[in-house]
Amino acid sequence: MTPDLVHVIDDDAAMRDSVAFLLGTEGFAVRQYDSGVDFLERLEKPASGCILTDIRMPVIDGLELLRRLRAAGHAAPVIMMTAHGDVPLAVEAMKLGACDFIEKPFDDETLLHALRSALRRGGPVGTVDPTIQEFIRRVETLSERERQVLDHLVAGGTSKEIGRTLDISPRTVEIYRAKLMAKTQAASLQELVRWSVLAGLA
């Protein structure tokens, strides 16, 4: 059986090597690229496998790379690697057609699960995913204020910024955040944002 191919694009050589080593031990075929330009120059048509790219890179960043791939008709699944605080960029990437995003630093299982899911689906998760449907059901149980805090969190707002916008204290924002995290059963802010984006709530 031919191993699944993953294209790893990151200008950080240590990051590329680390990811490539992990994927190699899990049976994936891996090709590494140090930039979006490098990837586009070596790209076969149509692109095969799954594309794992950093969102912040010089010359052509992850978003521009995704735009160019989709404009050229490439439908290969794309997963974005984002840094903490890149929530608005991750949301934009999903709207452009990325199938998933993971936040650095991520653990091995998070990456492997995202890649296997993307390769199995070949495209966006969509709201047909049972996990996402259940998340939507839980969101519907939120109070109006909890939903407002959720919307601002997904938009990348800090507790201080959200408090200013909603005219409540940052401490009160934290209380609402804890309540909505419990109700939605999201294990982390990253998971909350990811589910929200995949459910089309962002």
TrEMBL record:
InterPro entries: CheY-like_superfamily, Sig_transdc_resp-reg_C-effctor, Sig_transdc_resp-reg_receiver, Tscrpt_reg_LuxR_C, WH-like_DNA-bd_sf. Residues 135-200 form the HTH luxR-type domain. It comes from the Bacteria. Transmembrane segments: none annotated. It holds the Pfam family GerE. The keyword Ligase does not apply. Residues 5-119 form the Response regulatory domain. The modification 4-aspartylphosphate is found at D54. Keywords: DNA-binding, Phosphoprotein, Transcription, Transcription regulation. This is Response regulator FixJ. It comes from Methylobacterium adhaesivum.
